[in-house]
Amino acid sequence: MPLNRxxxxxxxxxAPLAGVAGFFTWFGxxxxxxxxxxxxxxxxxxxxxxxxxxxxxxxxxxxLWDSQTFKLGNIPAILVRVQAAQAGxxxxxxxxxxxxxxxxxxxxxxxxxxxxPEITSMAYKYRPEFKHPILGCACHFSAFDPELAGKSVxxxxxxxxxxxxxxxxxxxxxxxxxxx
Length: 180
Known about the structure:
Blueprint: H1 5-10, H2 14-35, E1 47-57, E2 67-72, E3 75-82, E4 90-92, E5 95-101, E6 112-114, H3 117-123, E7 134-136, E8 143-145, E9 151-154, E10 163-169, E11 172-179
Antiparallel strand pairs: 1-11, 2-3, 3-5, 4-5, 5-10, 6-7, 7-8, 8-9, 10-11
């Protein structure tokens, strides 16, 4: 039996109800992913080889959390001296380093190295345990923790920052690959 106009009008109220139910379902899933469902970086990163790029000298990193920005091709990146060895990082002369792409995994804005713990807690809603610097995206306030191998710890970005493969040759540190 075909639907007539009167029968359709009897059920018109289902359309906005379905729209509202769909929105709240999407909103709930998105909120869960942002607050709880962010994946941790892999313990065994897979790197794609790139051209070797000289990044810095080991001696340039006298203090914990010293950093150096560089470019790997057209990708903005940062090398950070961290407290402990990281998956995908290197250790040279008792110093631990990790290099990360600075392109936010949310919308590819370039992140900044935030050293002020007050800005970290106020703007990025994140308080690292040891009050160390983070990488923060000013576009939508995502925060990434270099001490957690670039994991997204706050904001809408779900994925961690891609790591950059490092290699030490004597006193020099080189970037030789990109995760992904």
